[in-house]
Amino acid sequence: MRVLVVDNDIVHARTMGEGLGRLGYQCVVAGSGAEGARKIEQDTFDIVVTDLMMNDIGGLEILARAKKASPETDVIVVTGHGTVPSAVAAMQQGAYTYLQKPLDLGHLRAAVEKASEGLRLRRQNVELNRRLDEKFGFEGVVGSSPQMLSLIERLKRIAPTDATVLIQGETGTGKELVAQAIHQNSPRKSRPFVALNCAALSENILESELFGHVRGAFTDASSDRIGKFEYANGGTLFLDEVGDMPLATQIKLLRVLESGEITRVGSNTPVRVNVRILSATNRNLEEAIAAGGFRSDLYHRLKVVTIAIPTLKERAADIPLLIDHFVKQFSRRHGKTIKGMALPARLKLVAFDWPGNVRQLRNVIESMVVVDCDEMLDVDDLPLEIEPVVAPLTPLPAADMQGGLAALVGRPLEEVERLFIGETLKLTGGNREQAAELLGIGERTLYRKIKEFQLS
């Protein structure tokens, strides 16, 4: 913590600075208001201790300049008995506190210590929020493909609102991660985010989990218990696999969405709740409605806004980025040193179909990090579920010349060359060294071709 002490009485200022310096504070002393103002312009301070009445620039001006330079800086005003009203005015303008003369060094140390502790807590909260943003914010939705950039832009518009959102996507595409990103970037971010999988529970247990119950409502209900709605009050409730919710529970959920009130199982007393609903499903709810398995009115209440998450196969350009992201994540988690991934292993991962989407890729990378023993992930670290996909090139039989390479026959050689270089760069995630190796050309030649063909 850096502290600036400003006082016309330079001896008094140095005494305060030395007293705080013994506690470990880095103190700078100014013998006038003008000198203090210059130091505020030239440097950054966590805490400013200033006399209120000075000959040139007074303490209120020092306060204003310190707050303008750094709004989080705490300013402690020192005042004589006759200027207490001015000290109160300083408090109204943003001073942390004021101390009266003759100044007690113990009181000064206590005030500075309390101010510094408050600053530490605020900075810890900022750091915590930054880490949450990295994990659950838009930075956590990894991808640079056009599909993902469009998705993130849509999330940025949706998050600040209170609209209900239906998230659609196959299993493993990251529906809960998207829900967490919406919550973490909404005005409700300081309140709970509560997730519930509707497919994992029977009808009776699901209703108890959602709405809570009172003692004696059913067998084993030995005490009152709040449900997820009450627990998430003020925050966000994420209903995963909402398409598997029983019809009877759907009716009760619809009533909550319309009235903003829940009733615990076994009770007649309504409880007011303020919860934003995010839901997700891998089912086609319109088909479920047609089959009588899902209520049309609930569907339209849940899908005020719809988000469709692409499969990993549809955004295959993001696979190299996701590989690097997960390698860093799991090498830290498991305390392993991983220098990188060899090209053959990377090519196998890029060419795989990924029926389990991002979740499957994530599990494969974690497995590779765990079993690796030479700090370089390679084909020998791949799990058995990844089939070999890279094979030596062989001439196409005449019977196969109806498509594939035949489609390139007759085109200008320059166009064919541009296509192959572009596709190879996609395959390597933009790694030019690896692309040059695959193409069998030098890196300088590849750089020249990229510039010539205007490839990104």
Describe the model:
- It is flat and about 90 Å long.
- 46% of the residues lie in helices and 13% in strands.
- It is an alpha/beta fold and 456 residues long.
- The longest helix is centred in the first third of the chain and has 32 residues, at 105-136.
- It folds into four domains: 2-127, 3-Layer(aba) Sandwich (Rossmann fold); 139-308, Rossmann fold (3-Layer(aba) Sandwich), CATH 3.40.50.300; 316-381, Orthogonal Bundle (Helicase, Ruva Protein, domain 3); 398-453, Homeodomain-like (Arc Repressor Mutant, subunit A), CATH 1.10.10.
- It has 18 helices and 14 strands.
Provide a brief overview of the structure.
The protein is 46% helix and 13% strand. With 456 residues, it is α/β, with parallel strands linked by helices.
DSSP strand tally: 14
Q: Which CATH class of the largest domain is shown?
A: Alpha Beta
Which stretches are low in confidence, meaning pLDDT under 50 for 5 or more residues running? 389-404
CATH architecture of the largest domain: 3-Layer(aba) Sandwich
Please give the order of strands in the largest beta sheet. 2-1-3-4-5
Overall shape: flat
Give the helix level as a range of percent. 40-55%
Average pLDDT taken over every residue = 86
Distance between the termini: 46 Å
- Structural category is alpha/beta
Number of helices: 18
Overall domain count? 4
Biggest beta sheet summary? 5 strands, parallel
Q: CATH topology of the largest domain, anyone?
A: Rossmann fold
Radius of gyration of CA atoms, rounded to a whole number: 32 Å
User: Strand portion, in percent?
Assistant: 5-15%
> How would you name the CATH homologous superfamily of the largest domain?
P-loop containing nucleotide triphosphate hydrolases
